[in-house]
Predict the structure.
Amino acid sequence: MIFSVFCLNNQKIKYDLRFNILIFFLFLTIQNFAIVIDTIKKPNVIYILCDDLGYGEVGYNGQNLIHTPELDKLAYSGMIFTDHYCGNAVCAPSRASLLTGMHPGHAYIRANSPGYPNGQTPLPENTETIGKLMKRAGYQYRLYW
């Protein structure tokens, strides 16, 4: 009888020890995971949207009339952007499509509107844009004209 009680207690001790070791390793794993999450840095994102800019209309491709010094610096350091396409044949719908991520057929802006300055219809106020999305993700954004 004493032996069986001892065995039961010994098994309970082994079980408690295994459980405690498991909890300890789970705690260490969670701690290390939290440290890794804290050290992950967000990548820098530069989103360049040039309206009506052709391949030959930048300085690094030999064009001298319009100065594009910042794009030229990027090009000379190896960053040449050649494969970004517009979603529509006219300015406002293309810009709306790129800024909202919507297919041009689903975007709010479908044409250059003559009722607004330069035909540029504004997006509705509550429209989700890449700028708003990046701001919620903790990024700062700027729009330069």
